[in-house]
Design a protein that fits this description.
single chain; 562 residues; alpha/beta; twelve-stranded mixed beta sheet; 20 helices; 40% helix; elongated; binds threonylcarbamoyladenylate; binds magnesium ion
Length: 562
């Protein structure tokens, strides 16, 4: 009751909006600084996330920050300053290491915990004798602080328990009417909060991973330990050294599962484990694979900068949907990966599953008559389990209730025979006359077949998997293959092969070749090409064997280097 009442009485303020991308507009900078000097609340841009700022030396102003955010008062705020020369005003016994770090990484996404001077109120530090100091890499905010002439206490500008804000619009959603102003300084470049290092202990300890990688700190300082709370759920009675690390940043309605392991393996895992009503956070290259889900791309698997920028947005998105569960891919913990993984895992209450299956998947694609079979046989001789996607699709037409239900909803009962089997001919007649219906069949197939392929991969004991699919790339499965091979052959060779294989006329064989994508199409979309124009089956088999051996050798070398 009391909380609700407090909310109502919460100062219904007129929130002023400043759009300031550069610090040149002196009048606006002065107005913004004035809000802070007079004890007001101002949302400010930084390179990491937006902050909710107030004069850090003014207990009353600081109290309003806790109120506006609904933040527990034992959770300390950090002080933002425009340069390292301000450190001695607020901190006692500043170690040499602090200046070394400031020299290298300020302005930038690094907060240092130091001993506080008495002028810093305990209200600001949540009762602690230490204080977090940070110099943000945003020229507008540094100019505002300089003009205000006081250190600015600023937690992330989200309502407590919500993901941090990386745009002024996010701040508007959470804070409009509760604070005096919002400075729109553009989208935050880093996207996750600053790295927090405690310099009051020896060796220094990382309390929160963030925009500055742990490796950079180790490079500057030598040994740096990592607080347990960064990678694990705290047990009953255990306390993280940064009080804020005990809170879940964001607790979506649906349970979150974070999948660790290599990008391809984790995508395969997700595909087999996520239920049909799951929301998915995945690396960009796997988006087509999760066609049947609500998907939020995290960034390419090799682009952690992009992932850091998107991680909070990805978590926010599912607020507006009613997904039953959320599955997220997670980068490795090198560089920014430690911070990205930490934010995802915290949202999941540290519910993680490991995906590494030790499997190597080779995807084989190409037009009819190009000679895929030589490669598939060579893979089989290496002990591979071969999955023929077309065959799997036809089996699913008979046995997969989810697929059959989707087909019935899209095309009606007429495509089913009296015995319940699907009349593929009737289905063909419908879709080949109508581009829209064809697209709808494609979408249904994409939402069902890759999942079944991944399930069969997981089920197989084989370490090597050969995936045979003419639409390997289009259905998204190419992305989960460790290698993709385009099998090509000159048109004349293909025509002769098809005539011999299927006992059809030359004209018909030519029309079938013409109806398919060109060799160039497959070549452009795969990692490798196998040109199968060899005149005899024995020669083709020998060449295919060599080709597969080279691929396997490359994998072995790659995994050795990891
Ligand atoms: O990137 C950032 O650091 C952003 C932007 C706005 O600068 N700020 C930010 O503040 O993330 P906040 O309050 O959301 O997170 C600060 C974290 C909290 O987990 C808090 O518990 C911890 O820093 N912290 C602050 N002072 C501390 C201290 N003296 N000792 C240990 N942890 C401290
Ligand atoms: Mg925060």
């Amino acid at each position: 009751m009391r909380a609700a009442k407090l909310k109502k009485e919460e100062r219904a303020l007129e929130t002023k909006w400043f759009t300031l991308r550069t610090p040149e507009n002196e009048e606006s900078i002065a107005q913004a600084a004035d809000i802070l000097r007079r004890g007001g609340l101002l949302a400010i841009p930084t390179e990491t996330v937006y902050g909710l700022g107030a004069n850090g030396l003014d207990e009353n102003a600081v109290l309003h920050i806790f109120e506006a955010k609904g933040r527990p008062q034992d959770n300390p705020l950090i002080l933002h300053i425009p340069d390292a020369s301000w450190l001695t005003c607020y901190c006692e016994d500043v170690p040499e290491a602090a200046y070394r770090l400031a020299e290298r990484f300020w302005p930038g996404p690094l907060t240092m915990i130091l001993k506080k001077k008495p002028c810093v109120p305990l209200r600001t530090t949540g009762g602690l004798e230490t204080v977090g100091m940070r110099c943000p890499d945003h020229a507008v905010t540094r100019a505002i602080i300089e003009k205000a002439g006081v250190p600015i206490a600023a937690p992330s500008a989200n309502t407590s328990g919500r993901p941090s804000c990386t745009t002024a619009e996010h701040v508007r959603e959470d804070m409009w009417g509760k604070i005096d102003g919002i400075v729109d300084g553009g989208a935050c470049e880093v996207g996750v909060e600053s790295t927090i290092i405690d310099l009051t202990v020896t060796p220094p300890q990382l309390l929160r991973p963030g925009g500055l990688p742990l490796e950079s700190l180790q490079d500057a300082l030598g040994e740096v330990t990592v607080d347990k709370a960064v990678t694990q759920k705290m047990g009953e009675g255990e306390k993280p050294r940064a009080p804020g690390m005990k809170y879940r940043h964001y607790a979506p309605k649906a349970p979150v599962t974070v999948v660790t392991g290599g990008a391809k393996a984790s995508a395969r895992y997700l595909l087999t484990h996520a239920s049909e009503d799951a929301g998915v956070i995945c690396f960009d290259e796997f988006v087509p694979l999760f066609a049947g889900h609500i998907v939020h791309p995290l960034g390419a698997s090799d682009d952690k900068r992009a992932q850091a920028q998107h991680v909070f947005d990805a978590l926010r998105t599912f607020d507006e949907t009613n997904v039953g569960e959320i599955w997220a891919q997670c980068p490795d913990s090198k560089g920014l990966g430690l911070a990205i993984g930490n934010r995802l895992k915290k949202a999941a209450g540290f519910h993680t599953e490991a995906s590494d299956d030790g499997k190597t998947v080779v995807g084989i694609t190409g037009g009819t008559g190009a000679g895929k079979t030589s490669l598939l046989h060579a893979l089989e001789r290496e002990g591979a389990c071969i999955l023929d996607c077309d065959k799997i699709y036809h089996e699913m037409l008979e046995s997969d209730e989810s697929l059959r239900k989707a087909l019935r909803a899209a095309f009606g009962g007429t495509i089913f025979r009296a015995d319940g089997s699907v009349d593929v001919h009737a289905l063909g007649l419908i879709v080949f006359q109508d581009a829209e219906k064809l697209a709808s069949l494609d979408a249904i197939v994409r939402a069902h077949v890759p999942r079944e392929c991944a399930r069969r991969m997981a089920e197989s004991n084989a370490k090597l998997i050969g995936l045979d699919a003419i639409k390997l790339i289009e259905c998204g499965l190419g992305a989960i293959c460790d290698a993709t091979v385009a099998v090509t052959a000159p048109e004349e060779v293909r025509v002769r092969r098809i005539m011999a294989r299927d006992g059809i006329t030359e004209d018909y064989a030519r029309s079938r070749v013409a109806a398919q994508q060109s060799a160039e199409y497959f070549r452009a979309r795969c990692d490798r090409e196998f040109v199968n124009d060899l005149p005899t089956a024995a020669e083709a088999a020998a060449a295919a064997e060599d080709f597969i051996h080279t691929i396997i050798k490359n994998f072995k070398e790659e995994t050795k280097h990891e």
